Amino acid sequence: MLDARLIAPGPAWRARWLHAGVAAVVGLRLLTRDWTQLADRPPALRTHLNLVGWVPDLPVVALVALQVVGFAAAVLAIGRVRPRLAFAVAWTAYVVLSGLWGSSGKFMHNDVLTVTVATLLLFSSPPARGVPADARHLRWGWPPRAALAVVGVVYLLTGVQKLRHSGPGWALGDNMAWVLRQGTSPFGEGFTLAVANLPALPQLLAAGALCLELLAPLLLLVAWTRIPFAVAVAVMHTSIWACLGLDYSAWVLTVAAVAVPAGLPWRPPWSRQLWSRQLWNRRRARVATP
Question: How many CA atoms lie within 13 A of 123 on its CB side?
Answer without folding.
Answer: 10
